[in-house]
Amino acid sequence: MSTVDYTDGLHQLADGVWAWLQPDGGWGLSNAGLVDGGGQSLLVDTQFDLPRTRRMLAAMAAVTAGSPIRHAVNTHGNGDHCYGNELLDPAVRIWAAPEAGAHLQAESPQLLATLMSADFGPQLSAYLHRAFGAFEFTGITGRLPDSPVTADTDLAVGSRTVRLLRLGPAHTYGDVAVYVPDSGVVFAGDLLFIGGTPIMWAGPAGSWIAALHRLLELDAEHYVPGHGPVTDAAGVREVIEYLAHVEAGAAELHARGRTAEQAAAEIDLGRFAGWGNPERVVINVDSCYRALDPAHPEPDVLALFGGMARWRA
User: Fold this and answer.
1) What three-state secondary structure class fits 53?
2) Could you check whether the bond before residue 169 is cis, i.e. omega within 30 degrees of 0?
3) Which of 65, 85, 144, 254 to pair with 274, CA 20 to 30 A apart?
4) Is 308 in contact with 282 (CB distance < 8 Å)?
């Protein structure tokens, strides 16, 4: 595993490359990155709300004062990686897969603010507040990405090249990883959760596993996950093993006639049971069932959160 300390704040990984880390990596506590190309910089992801994004940008100011941010990448459309976009200079180009913008529009900050103020009963409301109660969703404009990543793309960031890798569908329908070839650093977004349970909103598992094998082919020294500590190839392989384990368990229980929620309750997570938020298996099994049965309904996010609350109970 990586030797980078898992502490809150900015960590230099290589010459001109930093990771912004937020322990413990649970719901909404996402990582980000900064690449200084000499005279200009690229930012990988913003944060779940404006106060956290301001804090991150302030910590990066010692670098960005001399190398202003000219490009940003949203690795996908979940709000914890893009709700802070509006705090970037209007001249900054924000790169993302086209699906990420659609995702951001569908799951807007206003929607989350509404959900947090609604009463869904004690069990589900308590779960939502444990997951998202520390964040401020009111007052966010929700700036959309403006530069689509439809294929692997090389960006000139000052004097260095940064490669955007169009991967998935996997975690979502529009996942992008950021590779800095001259430093051996990959910012994987939520293709990687380290120490916490991955979330498969899109899948299928085989597509996500293929994306992770592409990351392994880069033979990077540091893989920065969307959540959790910086890792190396061993951490990437562990996520592959988790996805394969859940995919196999879901297929077996689907063949035995179990519903998706029943299967999530019955799967033996084995050595993965100690990862954070193991109840996310409810989402992951539901995605596996969609791959097994085209008639399986598209995800109902609120219903899946209800399933996770019941799983924990």
Assistant:
1) helix
2) yes
3) 254
4) yes
User: pTM of the full predicted structure?
Assistant: 0.97
Residue listed under structure tokens 């670098």: 63
Q: Give tens-digit pLDDT for 52-81.
A: 999 999 999 999 999 999 999 999 999 999
Distance CA 73, CA 117 (A): 31
Whether the Cβ atoms of residue 7 and residue 25 lie closer than 8 Å to each other: no
For the chain, percent helix, then strand, then coil, each to nearest 5? 40, 20, 40
Which residue type does 292 have?
L
Rounded distance between C-alpha atoms, residue 237 and residue 187, angstroms: 16
Report the distance separating Cα 255 and Cα 259, nearest Å.
10
Structure tokens at 17: 């490359």
Give the CATH class of 9-312: alpha beta
**Lowest-pLDDT range, 25-39, 100-114, 255-269?**
100-114
Distance between CA 186 and CA 179 in Å, rounded?
Answer: 4
Where b means 16+ CB within 10 Å and e means fewer, 59-69 reads: bbeebbeebeb
Q: Domain boundaries in the chain?
A: 9-312
8 A C-beta contact, residue 199 and residue 288: no
> Closest by alpha carbon to 242, among 169, 188, 191?
191
If phi > 0 it is left, if psi is from -120 to 50 it is alpha, else beta; for residue 127 that is: alpha
User: What is the rounded CA–CA span in Å between residue 299 and residue 154?
Assistant: 34
DSSP 151-216: S-EEEEETTEEEEEEEE-SSSSSSEEEEEETTTTEEEEEEEEESSB----SS--HHHHHHHHHHHH
